[in-house]
Design a protein that fits this description.
single chain, mainly alpha
């Protein structure tokens, strides 16, 4: 059985890991926004998906 102290420590550790993951994701998104190639890559991916969908319909 866990004590209240153990529960608090586990909760704090989970919150700390979550905050670190959020910060990493934010840095990654900032790098993507700063990249001039992001729009081109996303457009190409969207066009590829559309082509695959249309190809499978006909």
């Amino acid at each position: 059985m866990m004590t209240q102290f153990q529960r608090k420590r586990i909760k704090e550790e989970i919150e700390k890991q979550s905050a670190a993951a959020d910060a990493g994701a934010d840095r990654f998104l900032d790098k993507l926004r700063a990249s001039k190639w992001t729009g081109v890559i996303l457009l190409a991916a969207a066009m590829g998906i559309v082509i695959v969908v249309l190809w499978s319909l006909f």
